[in-house]
Specification:
Strand order of the largest sheet: 1-2-3
CATH architecture of the largest domain: Up-down Bundle
Strand content: 5-15%
Largest sheet: 3 strands, mixed
Radius of gyration: 24 Å
CATH class of the largest domain: Mainly Alpha
């Protein structure tokens, strides 16, 4: 993440300087656009550092896994703001076309695309493991035998990845628009590509806001997991009276299970039934005799 932040900052400076020298508003706009992404990526990097440093802090009852989701939510909001700014700039340029030094701008845009692709590769092959948020110290590897992908998404890493992809997308659109403007004299391609790119980025940011927001408000992560818990608890005439399931970090889900039974068993027996459900990292079981 730190390497990606450094690459983004270097490319940001290069585009702003090149845009100023060559008189290209497209490069200047993309440079300042990258500045907002550099800020969002810095938030992601700081979230990992904070989560790692506070992993053993007893004030965090369920570890620091949600720090990444909070950072991801913040980055998603910033991504939406950037998309709106790009869309507005596209609309303005549609009605007020501006001259561009195509040759210089194309080369800088191509360089920016390579930097963004390299950053995306780094993030896609990064090793931001699920154990960074303080869960593995209590639960050991038994919950990682069969990780459930729907619970294992690192929203902080995903937000950084989407920011880099958004940069790459705007670079691609910029290259297409600049080439079309240079060789076909289609000046309208520049604002059109900006507007289309803004719509695509807004879709990405909305999806990330929904995913991270659901975690932050403790929404039930997966109906299938709830059904699996119920099936395992109610195998021998026991009744599931109350159930709360929520995500506490990437790959880790907590559950509070309340059971009523004519022949109640020890809570450890019901926990044993749930050990096959890999995402469950924190399980609290209370057992009541039926009246």
């Amino acid at each position: 993440m730190r390497v990606v932040v450094a690459l983004t900052l270097v490319m940001m400076v290069a585009e702003i300087v090149a845009g100023s020298i060559f008189g290209s508003m497209a490069l200047l706009a993309d440079g300042w656009h990258m500045a907002t992404h550099a800020g969002a990526l810095s938030i992601s990097a700081l979230a990992y550092a904070y989560a790692r440093r506070r992993a053993d802090d007893p004030r965090f009852a369920f570890g620091t896994g949600k720090v990444g989701d909070l950072a991801g939510f913040t980055s998603a909001v910033l991504l939406a703001v950037v998309a709106c700014a790009i869309g507005w700039e596209g609309v303005v340029r549609w009605f007020e076309p501006r001259a561009i030094h195509f040759d210089e701008a194309i080369w800088v845009a191509v360089l920016g695309l390579f930097v963004n692709l390299a950053s995306a590769w780094l993030l896609d092959h990064g090793d931001a493991g699920e154990g960074e948020h303080g869960h593995e110290r209590e639960h050991g590897p038994e919950h990682e035998r069969e990780p459930a992908r729907e619970h294992g998404h690192d929203h902080n890493l995903r937000s950084a990845y989407l920011h880099v992809l958004a940069d790459a997308l705007t670079s691609v659109f910029a290259i297409v628009a600049l080439v079309a403007g240079k060789y076909l004299e289609w000046a309208w391609m520049d604002p059109l590509c900006g507007i289309v790119g803004a719509v695509v980025i807004l879709r990405w940011s909305w999806g990330l806001v929904r995913a991270t927001g659901a975690v932050l408000v403790d929404a039930t992560p997966d109906p299938a997991l709830v059904a699996a818990i119920r099936e395992r608890v109610e195998r021998e005439g026991d009744v599931l009276c109350d159930l709360h399931v929520w995500r506490v970090g990437p790959g880790h889900v907590a559950a509070i299970v309340s059971i009523a039974s004519d022949t109640p068993r020890e809570p450890s027996e019901y926990k044993r039934r749930l050990t096959e459900l890999a995402p469950l990292a924190h399980v609290t079981v209370e057992v009541h005799r039926r009246r």
